[in-house]
Amino acid sequence: MKSIFLNFNALFVCTVGLFASVAQAQNDVISQRMNECRKSIIPLEIYQKFGSNYESAFRDAMCGKWYTEHEEEAKNSAGGGIDVLIVSASGSADSSKSQKTVSRIEYCQNTNYKVRQEFNDEFWRRSADPISQSGYNLCIHQVFQYASSTTGSYPVKISVQEIGEMLQFSVRFDANFGGDKPRLKDINPARLRCSGKNDRWKNMVIPSQGDGIVFECRWATEDAGEAIFTAITTRGDVVSSVTREVRPYVNVRQVKLTPEDKTISTKPVCGDPVNTPEFFHNWKNHDDGRCAALTGDYCLGKYGVALTAEKPEADKFVRLVKPYINCNDNANGSCNWNGGNIANAQWTTSDSRAQAELYFGSHQASLKICAEQQTYSKQDREDPVKTFDLPLGGRFTVSIPKGEHHKLNATWRNGISEQFNPDVGNRAFQLETRQDVGNQTLLTYKILTWEQPGSVIGQQFRTTRTRLKMMD
């Protein structure tokens, strides 16, 4: 077993484990299991029509009735969503040097063009529903585990090394085994996109010296964490499994918003004072019209006092808290004598104003309203609800109880963050379905391809047709 550590732009660590087997029975098991995986993502009507003939299934998807009925879905599955282009090659099946770009229409007109299996798989994976996608990923993981368990000593060897963001696989013959030198019949990469450095590698004698037959591969998708590279030779088949630890393409956090006030400052404030006259002893006998009521022989006047809050700064608010009537009688006893009248004052209050009417008699006093004035701001408290770690093109569903307000915060792999309203989504998160179930609203989104914020690639592909890699 050999392990090396790969660093892709400091975004993830890739650990490569190499396992080989030349037993044809083992390769048959892997091929059979890979076909079982593909069944989970190909639409039922397509599979019932074509079975395991995946080339014909893809051609029908691009050129037949299925494409007419699912045109937008097919475009999105191709990796863009504007138009579909294909790349074909003449000569060697995996020659990147002889590839050319043709339109979907030209592909449909030329039945000699064939799609690469790894692209075929990725096309159907992206078009599948979330449940089918999960089943496919689990199936690939199980195939990977099987391939990883096949160890031993065999005449054909595979080594791999990381060069930048590329994985370079080298297929060599171990001359110590003797016998006829094997020829390389084909390769079968899963979750990888590979091209041979030599244009004519098919049926080439596998050398025992130098680098052997070299293939340059890249991960088929940014979210792929496991891959299998199979070299099919005349002396058996070699299976190499590769793993890496991958950060999610985007992290989405669902949070509940609860409105609340944040107090910024508090200070005591008082309104303008109202001075009462001297109504002592037998004032009722000298009433000049200012008596509003009597308490025994004492005349009571009726007074109004008020307090208005200060005008707040922009984006801030004020309120008066715990207003009360302040009485100052210069120690003549009037405030104490009128304690009941003060307690029975008639109040009218709001956040920004307090006013009161009360009866007051006896000696002269000064009345005014005082309170605490609070300056505050309005903000939403954010309570976490759920977190989603998502691949490119992934789907996720959020549940929002009726009457609650939520938002979604997204952090992309490149570090850029954004937030959006769950009710509408945005250009990167397409709201696919909305469903009311009981007291919950279920919202399902799809991450649109090439819409990562700040992505130069994304900007290019929004104005350029999508390219699909093919072979002939």
Topology:
Blueprint: E1 3-8, E2 12-17, H1 24-39, H2 44-50, H3 54-63, H4 65-69, H5 71-77, E3 84-89, E4 99-103, H6 104-109, E5 114-115, H7 117-127, H8 130-148, E6 156-163, E7 166-173, E8 183-190, E9 192-196, E10 204-205, E11 213-219, E12 226-233, E13 236-243, E14 250-270, E15 274-275, E16 293-295, E17 298-308, E18 317-328, H9 334-337, H10 339-343, E19 346-349, E20 353-361, E21 366-390, E22 395-401, E23 405-412, E24 417-420, E25 429-437, E26 440-447, H11 456-461, E27 466-471
Parallel strand pairs: 3-27
Antiparallel strand pairs: 1-2, 3-4, 5-27, 6-7, 7-11, 8-10, 8-12, 9-11, 12-13, 14-21, 14-23, 15-21, 16-17, 17-20, 18-21, 19-20, 22-26, 23-24, 25-26
Helix pairs in contact: 1-8, 2-3, 5-7
Gist?
This protein has 472 residues and is of the alpha+beta class.
